[in-house]
């Protein structure tokens, strides 16, 4: 329960909203793996290349973030540290 609260706090923080927007703009609103965008009817997510669970000190580092669509992000999960940019 406490772990879930910390996760929710992070993803609802002003710092996350700000950096997330910067990443979406930098990546031109396209999945860096498959190239799809919202016009293709998919949900975009900002992915931590090195997962927060293992590298919490990188959670707000611009160079550790990339835009992925939901299917690509779910496939990557926290199992891989592939940078698709």
UniProtKB/TrEMBL annotation:
Protein name, as recorded: HNH endonuclease
- TM ranges: none
* Species assigned in the record: Rufibacter sediminis
**GO-annotated molecular function:** endonuclease activity
Q: Name the CDD domains on file.
A: HNHc
> Which UniProt key words apply to this protein?
Endonuclease, Hydrolase, Nuclease
Q: List the Gene3D superfamilies hit by this protein, alphabetically.
A: 1.10.30.50
| Pfam families cross-referenced by the UniProt entry | HNH
Task: Please list the residue ranges annotated as the HNH nuclease domain.
Answer: 18-74
């Amino acid at each position: 329960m406490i772990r879930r609260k910390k996760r929710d706090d992070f993803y609802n923080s002003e710092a996350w909203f700000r950096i997330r927007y910067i990443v979406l703009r930098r990546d031109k609103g396209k999945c860096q793996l498959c190239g799809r965008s919202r016009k293709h009817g998919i949900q975009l997510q900002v992915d931590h290349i090195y997962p927060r669970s293992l590298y919490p000190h990188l959670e707000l580092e611009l160079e550790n973030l990339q835009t992925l669509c939901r299917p690509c992000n779910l496939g990557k999960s926290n199992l891989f540290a592939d940078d698709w940019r």
